[in-house]
Design brief:
single chain; about 550 residues; alpha/beta; seven-stranded parallel beta sheet; 19 helices; binds glutamine
């Protein structure tokens, strides 16, 4: 029988519930178990695809083209189990499904209600993930929001029913709370007591508490918390602040024996923990020396989470090169207004430039300026999706001299639409709609940075875009020196471009950031940062 762990949060948001759930997942995988991660999101949007990155952060894309919450990115960085759109359950999806069934008359005239119909739909979705693979051992279900929120009540109720139905030996409640510090280092347990009471009011007795606190809680504090909450002292853990990296959290939990307590409660026999990849990662972290500064020239710069996976992938790549990566976030519209790119990029002393994905016209010419600057100054450049399209526009405008060259996303009247709609180029029915989403294979040309990075001819990465390199300009682009180094398997679409005679200038139409891990950086990010370090070292004479 599969085991279930429900992770909830109390007191306030942003305590790192996603990192805690993922870290627990990593520990259980370290014990050789097959773990599946699910995020339940109380919002009414059907998926994150329509949410503004300014407000909600990045849209995380799964292999099957699911446009999901960024928490799935955390799962992908900490754990190795498959993730698809089914791993993200939103209130919107649940209600949509129930209302559709009601319209189809499937409830046989009964009054359709939150309990049992909405809760049944939630339960069946959780169980579907659990049963999708015969070899699943543990399912970790993270419930978004904070206990006490109106929106999350149906999810908590579904969790309560599942814990009751499966029995406590098969389903656990892990609750994350905050222990604030008041005055001179005085730690306050009262909010935790109240938070657990709110859980109990929902009919769920937490089995394990993870307390977010400035320092590791001492035995007396843990005992006090245990006394007030009906949780055993041995099951009170601390997620304390570390000045290293969030990727150390699995090891902090391991040292406190979180996995042992959880497995004992669930009656799971497992092998000894193998956390070698995590310890090795921390060794690489400790061995870093020096810093490289990477300009991220994008549109959604105010919210760190908008480019979450890109920033994490840069950090992972830094680990591989044993170098700290400092992010220099530049709103591309500032570059648009700047006298010249050198005034902003040159004086910021950036060692590399990355233009990430994005939609819409604002700031686009600033991105083109950044690409031109990196190209002409021999500064390593990495273009992702829109960042690749920007490379193509720069080349057409500044090398071929087609001043009006543009993507038809930004200018429909240009005589040089060097990037244009997918529909105009291929039969989009093949791609499931107007947006090319999810996993697609690309073929890497030999002798390219693209091939050098993956050391594979066929590369599978995820896509989320509507526009493409325009095939009508292939010959002129390639003829003038722009290297076309990646294609779809049928050669119908260009997937990667590279600058000739340049230390490292690569643009890819897909999003390699989604598959990067702290324990194994994505190959393109790895090589980008390696090139940046190399170039920086060469002019510093090191
Ligand atoms: N806006 C561009 C397109 O739709 C790029 C999308 C992206 O960067 N994800 O093709």
């Amino acid at each position: 029988m599969n085991k279930y762990i429900f992770v909830t949060g109390g007191v306030c948001s942003s305590l790192g519930k996603g990192v805690a759930a993922s870290s627990l997942g990593a520990l259980l995988e370290g014990r050789g178990l097959n773990v599946r991660m699910i995020k339940c999101d109380p919002y009414i949007n059907v998926d994150a695809g329509t949410m503004s990155p300014y407000q909600h952060g990045e849209v995380y894309v799964t292999d099957d083209g699911g446009e999901t919450d960024l928490d799935l990115g955390n799962y992908a960085r900490f754990t190795g189990g498959p993730l698809s759109r089914a791993n993200s359950i939103t209130t919107g999806q649940v209600y949509e499904a129930v209302i559709r069934k009601e319209r189809e008359g499937r409830y046989l005239g009964r009054c359709v209600q939150v309990i049992p119909h909405i809760t049944d739909e939630i339960k069946s979705r959780i169980l579907a993930v659990s049963k999708a693979d015969a070899d699943t051992d543990v399912v970790i279900v993270e419930i978004g929001g904070t206990v006490g929120d109106i929106e999350s009540i149906p999810f908590l109720e579904a969790a309560r029913q599942l814990i009751h139905e499966m029995g406590r030996a098969n389903a656990l409640s892990v609750h994350l709370t905050l222990i604030p510090e008041v005055g001179e280092g005085e730690l306050k347990t009262k909010p935790t007591q109240h938070s657990v009471k709110s859980m109990q009011e929902q009919g769920i007795q937490p089995d394990v508490l993870i307390c977010r606190a400035p320092v590791l809680l001492d035995e007396a504090t843990r005992r006090k918390i245990a006394l007030f909450t009906n949780v055993a002292t041995e099951a009170v853990f601390t997620s304390y602040n570390v000045d290293t990296t969030i990727y150390e959290v699995p090891l902090l939990f391991f040292e406190q024996k979180l996995d042992q307590v959880v497995l004992k409660r669930l009656g799971v026999e497992s092998r000894h923990a193998d956390l070698q990849p995590w310890y090795a990662m921390m060794e690489r972290f400790a061995a870093r020396s020096g810093t490289v500064r990477i300009a991220i020239v994008g549109k959604y710069m105010d919210l760190h989470d908008s480019y979450k996976s890109v920033f994490e992938a840069l950090f992972h790549a830094g680990l591989e090169s044993r170098v700290a990566v400092e992010l220099v976030k530049i709103d591309s519209s500032r570059l648009e207004d700047a006298e010249d790119a050198d005034a902003l990029l040159g004086t910021s002393a950036v060692d590399g430039v990355l233009v990430p994905g994005g939609f819409g016209q604002r700031g686009i010419n600033g991105m083109v300026k950044a690409a031109a600057w990196a190209r002409t100054h021999q500064i390593p450049y990495f273009g992702i999706c829109l960042g690749m399209q920007v490379m193509v526009i720069d080349w057409a405008r500044n090398v071929l001299g087609w001043e009006d060259a543009d993507s038809t996303e930004f200018n429909q009247d240009t005589k040089h639409p060097v990037v244009s709609l997918l529909e105009d180029q291929v039969d989009v029915k093949n791609y499931g709609g107007t947006m090319r989403l999810g996993k697609w294979e690309s073929v890497a040309e030999p002798d390219s940075r693209f091939f050098e990075a993956y050391r594979e001819k066929i590369v599978s990465e995820r896509h989320r875009h509507r526009y493409e390199f325009a095939n009508t300009f292939r010959d002129e682009m390639a003829g003038s020196g722009l290297r076309l180094t990646g294609f779809t398997t049928d050669k119908s679409l260009v997937e990667a471009v590279e600058w000739p005679d340049h230390p490292w200038g690569v643009g890819v139409q897909f999003h390699p950031e989604f598959k990067s891990k702290p324990t194994a950086a994505n190959p393109l990010f790895r090589d980008f940062i390696a090139a940046v370090k190399n170039v920086k070292g060469s002019y510093e004479g090191t």
